[in-house]
Design a protein that fits this description.
This protein is an alpha/beta fold. The chain has one domain: NADP-dependent oxidoreductase domain (TIM Barrel, Alpha-Beta Barrel), CATH 3.20.20.100. Helices cover 37% and strands 15% of the residues. The protein has ten helices and twelve strands. An eight-stranded parallel sheet has the order 3-4-5-8-9-10-11-12. Helix 1 packs parallel to helix 2. The longest helix has 20 residues. It is globular and about 50 Å long.
Amino acid sequence: MHQRVLGPQQRAVSAMGLGCMGMSEFYGPSDDAESLLTLHRALALGITLFDSADTYGHGHNEQLLGQLVRQIGPARRQPLCLASKFGIVRQPGQAGRRIDNSPAYIRQACEASLQRLGVEQIDLYYCHRRDPEVPIEEVVEAMAGLVRAGKVAQIGLSEVSASTLRRAAAIHPIAAVQTEYSLWSRDPEAELLPACAELGVSLVAYSPLGRAFLTDTLATGQLSDGDFRQHSPRFQGEAAQANQQLVAQLSAFAQARGQSNAQVALAWLLAKHPQLIPIPGTRRIAYLEQNAAAADCALSAADVAELDKLFDPARVQGERYPASGWLGIEQAM
């Protein structure tokens, strides 16, 4: 697996990470035994960046990674970059959620994540969502305190604007900004991606395959109970039909090059910024192997330009989240 660097410290990580959220919830039923096999296969493929959060499965996702850490032992754990997040507070069995960015909560959340992961230090710790009532300077100073205490190696932010990133970086080095970025979610290109390049911050792209829509393997009418995509505007009605036409063109593009849709979509992202790291999520080894192979699927400048034109944002229909999903997400400012 090719490597890229994470943040100003230039820590080497795999060019492709693994998003672990779906191993715990949001995408229908999962199986821990299957997920652990997939995690071990990811290690064998050279993947070193594993992305989690305390809210995924109400702690279950971190506990799952903790099982992996125990199974592989200290020597194999050392090169891994375990990433987790704080900030989204949910109660089991309740649909609602709130954002907490208070310094006391940040310290409390970090201690709980350390215990669930079974590690002494979290390699990359993100503020998952922003509470606009708490100044970003106060948030970052609390996170910097975790670094000074040795509980966190590097810090990051998720779904923030370029303006917030610059304010944060003035307080403490920011290793990464995580945001949704894919062929059909290109908002970061206007301001956030240039700011990352300016500051030496890595951009970690979540949902790089459009929550599987771009792969052309998803039957939108057959999503299982508990799959949050049932409520996603881009997966509904006329928007889904229009977006499917774009995916059909992507399929033709990929087939002409002997690649899968997923490999083309991931290779396109890798071409966008030398410190960009996609974190496609999957529970299944077959998809994991296909995604990992995208690190070797180089696209020409002409290919990238053709895909840019095909997925002009004006052609993509529907918002990326329902109204309730925008809590804590900053728009460009």
